[in-house]
Amino acid sequence: MKALFKHRELALAVLLVIGVAAIGGYQPAFLEWDNIGDVLTETSVLFMMALAQMAVILTRGIDLSVAANLALSGMIAALVSQYHPDTPLFLMILAGILSGLALGMINGALIAFLGIPPIVMTLGTLAVFRGMIILIAGGDQVNASEMGVAFQAFPKQVILGLTTPVWIAAGVSILFWIFLNSTRSGRGLYAVGGNPVAARYCGIDQRKQELIAYAISGAVAGLCGYLWVARYGVAYSEIANGYELTVIAACVIGGVSIGGGVGTVAGTLLGALFLGIVMTALPVLQISPFWQMAISGAVILAAVIINARAERRPDKLILPEARRLRRIRA
Amino acid sequence: MNAPVAQEDRYVVLDAPPRRLRDIILRWEVILIILLALTIVVNTIVSPYFLDVFNLADATFNFSEKAIIALAMALLILVREIDLSVAAIVALAAMSIGYAAEAGWGPLALFATGIGIGLCCGIFNGLVVTYFNLPSIVVTIGTMSLFRGLTQVILGDQAKTKYPAAFLELGQSYFIKMKETGIAWLFIPPVPLSFLIFLVLAVLFGLMLHKTAVGRQLFAIGSNPVAARFSGIPVDRRRFLLFAVSGILAGLAAALLTARLGSMRSNIAIGWELDIVTMVILGGVSIAGGVGSILGVVLAVLVLGLVTFGMSLNNIPGQVVSVYIGALLIAVIAIPRIVERVRLWRVR
Fold it and tell me: What pTM value is reported for the model?
């Protein structure tokens, strides 16, 4: 049991399997392939957003502007589709990704080169991005009838039994896994967050790493913005309002340490899957959807408490409280 | 990179440099006062309705509840903590007030209900943070979902709309009535209850933070929690206390908000936590801890409140206002850093 809990991802996976099996026992329809596909499709945006957020949190940062970035980039993609319907689909998607990337780079540049605290910077850009949606769209929303047909059809296409967003999420996850484990700048994210001073002595440029992290976060938010808008067939300023906290919650449940330097792709994906299952299982179990928030809140608290216990390492102490005080600064 | 220090200079302790004009001008509060003056001047020129006592008094309704919570948030951020669950506490407390009002409780009992529920939530936050020794940003994201989730579970899609008239009166009318004295510029302005409470609390918090030992302890904790503990400051107890205070003020704000709106749903006060954090940061409280003043927070509250009010007088939609406020937040933090960079670069 103890060994099991040492491997956080394994413990979370076991919990998830037990949970899904229990739901399936009560309502077998939940385990049917169609439903599993639906759950994955619903969660695909959260998978990608959580991975991108993890890249930022690894550097001891936080990106509160992701949901606003998603909404703004989604709106830009939708406007391209509305006013230039002849544009090839991949260019429309690229418009979303590039706008997200640019917005993320603004965050990254100011955080890395001016040393503005990430929470302050992204809180500010959260408000700015949301308001920009109203400004660029003139206060209107873009409806399904105004978007191109191909634009909306793409996220609903089914390839080998799964929808395209699921395949995109899978591809992004593999890229993240390779990036974080096998590339210099990917390892650099862990180094910068784990021990900035040591990272500097190793010749790792902290500013460059931070810029990379926020740029990734922005680009992924842009991609998800397109997927969100195209899938739900509407773009307006309130899209994904408050979603940034769901994304951070997925990371926390997945064992990403808010103090930086700790987190894995597998853990984060499981954290996102957990929230995705909670969201989709409630209607199946005929529980009021109003329970969703309370459950995820309780799970977040349980996850951080368990993670904190697992992380505790014995060390020399002069004053017992001193160790307790060496906590991660929020 | 540093110039080599000559041996004989090593133990020379310099006097504090004399205060220069620039040190006074570059103080955060002074920058905020200039911003506030600019806001008032620009708005007065743009709209003839801005400088009207009644309009201004009504404008305070819109930010006073948030501002009350911002006082507690300022202290939390000062000691390197944060409470993102305040808006959810407002929702839970407002719902309890709704049920209590249906049970026929009076105005005072309703305020006590709100404050009591808020206190319970704050104690819960404080216990989880200090007992399990967890980063408060994560804990309060969790309790934010938990508290608002509980509100949704209990209330569903219902609204609570039955409140005693005396309770609504407290939230919707001026607590201090307008009094003319015969001289045009000398009068007692109308003041809503929520703004009055904010001012009184601001004075109390200011005195506590800047004039008492506990206040100095908070600065010490914010600057270096470990050193503070070794100096005999009960760090965790202070942290716990601040979370409890944050809960109390959120409960109080819930009572004032419910009385003003006369109804509540489970999405009441949604997104307030970020507005409140913006007030505090614009007020010059450092997110890294140990720096800040209540005067700065009060000034920031007034700047934000009057900017929003002035823009709404000119029919600018709320989300466009938020562009300006977000940009203001970033600019105010970024400009001193850019100035510093340029100065260092020129010295080199």
Answer: 0.84
